[in-house]
Amino acid sequence: MINIAITGGIGSGKSEVTAYLSSKGYIVVDADKMSREMTAAGGKAIPYIREHFGPAFIMEDGSLNRAAMRDLVFRDPAKKKLLEEGTTKVVIEDIEAIKAERERLGDKALFYDIPLLFETGTANNYDIVLVVTADYEVRKSRIMARDGIGPEIIDLIMDSQEGEDEKASMADFVIYNNGTIDDLHDSVELLLKKLEI
To answer: Does residue 27 belong to any structural domain of this protein?
Structure first.
């Protein structure tokens, strides 16, 4: 089974790539979804967050206060690292369990949507790394349109992530997503043909 990690900075189009792959019948493991589940009420990461960040970061329903945490981690790199240390280990364990199960079931390929692949040092856990990227201003305008976040916060978020050029240089394959959705889908189809999956 080929294990293919897909990563890219915010606004790059990575989610569109994984949605397209899913629509074609490929299995995509979503690390962000796993992370959201572990920070929901009763999630595996909540005790760690309460212990290391305090009760102000836990909502009344027992879930992570995402707005407060986002404001903290994008302004304090040490706190961002502390949060990632607490959540990455659990996500990796869950991903490894899924990998083993899908291999047992005889899947030919498995895709993994992992936004912080390089930042967490887990790229070597996969056979192939695909980076989806786009120009800075293209990404910024997508985020503003999609999320309604102001440009200052977007700059902080984008600056806190590994540089796009650096990610691309470490990838096995790169999709440059500065065009239309159809262009992006065509690029994915070319990759699937190259990989013969």
So the answer is: yes
